[in-house]
Amino acid sequence: MPKLHELTAAYSHIDALIDDEILTNDQLIEYVDAIEGALKEKGENIAKLIENLEATADNIKVAETRMAQRRRAIENRANSIRNYLLANMVNSGITKIECEYFKIAVRDSPPSVLITDPALIPAEYMKTPEPPAPSPDKKKIIDDLKQGVVIDGVQMQKTQYLQIR
After folding, report:
1. What are the 10-residue block averages of pLDDT along the chain, 165 residues in total?
2. Cβ atoms < 10 Å from Cβ of 36
3. Which of 28, 44, 110, 151 lies 20 to 30 angstroms, CA to CA, from 62?
4. 3-class DSSP assignment, residue 97
């Protein structure tokens, strides 16, 4: 079976065949119907492929979500057991465990800050985030362009998309 772009090219050259006096009207109609039927069949098959690929992508997305949840659960369990081991080593006064596979040691963490009431912190200790850079308001721009307003640096573009229901 010909490729979609080959059928499209053949379909777009039908105008040239109209002037061809060798073909009868019935032959021309039969040729146009054959190409149009093949185009529609090819389009249907490609749409089925698109649907299949999108369904596969959705299934992968669901699997990714499940795997991420599982990873977080395993990480949380490992952290909980790590804290359990740390608490029991500290409570029993054991600071080191050496074995064939590991060297486990209780270590002091570097000092950190615990904020108990942010409202009481003096201004000199507060960071002010950088404001976001200005960005084009595309909704306002398109609304104005539709009204005929000329805006330097932009132009309205019309594109097409494929809808498969």
Report:
1. 77 71 76 81 90 96 98 97 96 95 94 95 93 95 94 92 78
2. 13
3. 44
4. strand
